[in-house]
Amino acid sequence: MADDDYVYDEATGEWRPASEVAAAAAAAARVEVRDAAGNILADGDSVVLVKDLKVKGAGQTLKQGTVIRLIRLTEDPEEIDCRHDTIRGLVLRTEFVRKR
């Protein structure tokens, strides 16, 4: 976009330069995901469960201290996508994990 392009920002109700809106959107996309201890999580990190969790649909309980490797961040900063040896497509809340 050129410098003289303007975009209507629905959040503020104003016309703003397109470059300014794009910069604000990029900053909003970089949301920090934190674990139960306040550590910042990133894609590929390993986490440890801080409490026993019953897994819905699997009829299984993941015990405290279980290591989950290679997590992926989702659009929701309170959830992470991961895989366990026996459970595929597992989504955990960040309040129940701690960075390893």
Task: Please give a structural write-up.
The mean pLDDT is 87. This protein is mainly β and 100 residues long. The chain has a three-stranded antiparallel beta sheet, with no helix packed on it. A three-stranded antiparallel beta sheet has the order 9-10-11, with no helix packed on it. It has a two-stranded antiparallel sheet with strand order 1-2. It has one helix at 18-29, and strands at 6-9, 14-17, 33-34, 40-41, 47-49, 53-55, 60-62, 67-68, 72-73, 79-82, 90-93, 97-99. The longest helix has 12 residues, at 18-29. The chain has one helix and twelve strands; from the N terminus they run E-E-H-E-E-E-E-E-E-E-E-E-E. The protein is elongated.
